Amino acid sequence: MSIHRPKRVTYRSSKENNPLDSDLKDAKPTDWAQAMAGKRDADFQAYAVKTTYAVGALIKHPKFGNGVVVAVEPQKIDVLFESGERKLAHAL
Q1: What's the predicted TM-score (pTM) here?
Q2: In a domain, 46, yes or no
Q3: Which domain covers residue 53, as residue numbers?
Q4: How far apart are CA 88 and CA 76, in angstroms?
Q5: How many CA atoms lie within 13 A of 89 on its CB side?
Q6: Residue 80 forms part of a structural domain
Q7: Distance between CA atoms of residues 7 and 58, nearest Å
Q8: How far apart (Å, rounded) are the C-alpha atoms in residues 77 and 88?
């Protein structure tokens, strides 16, 4: 016999409703080809979880390839790769 449990309602604010988040998104580069223009392979450093990165750092990831850091959070970074934006760990 099963017990009927109603769905829980969560009241989370949408990221779209926060004007500060939208301003930050506008500052991020969205086109990978444009972000990589003029960069050489020697400019990229190998990605390592223990390394601390800053916005604009150039990373060479073994699976995703070359990318640029577009946002930094505590222990997480957003990196723009050719396949899209990924969230990676750093400074662990």
Answers
A1: 0.68
A2: yes
A3: 31-89
A4: 6
A5: 4
A6: yes
A7: 44
A8: 5
71 touches 80 (CB < 8 A)? no
Q: Yes or no: say if 89 and 51 are a contact pair by the CB < 8 Å rule.
A: no
The amino acid at residue 80 is L
* Whole-angstrom distance, CA of residue 25 vs CA of residue 34: 16
84: three-class secondary structure by DSSP = strand
Name the residue with higher pLDDT: 10 or 34: 34
pLDDT tens by residue, 29-79: 678 888 888 889 899 999 999 999 999 999 999 999 999 999 999 999 999
User: Which residue carries 């099963």 as its tokens?
Assistant: 2
User: Number of structural domains, the chain?
Assistant: 1
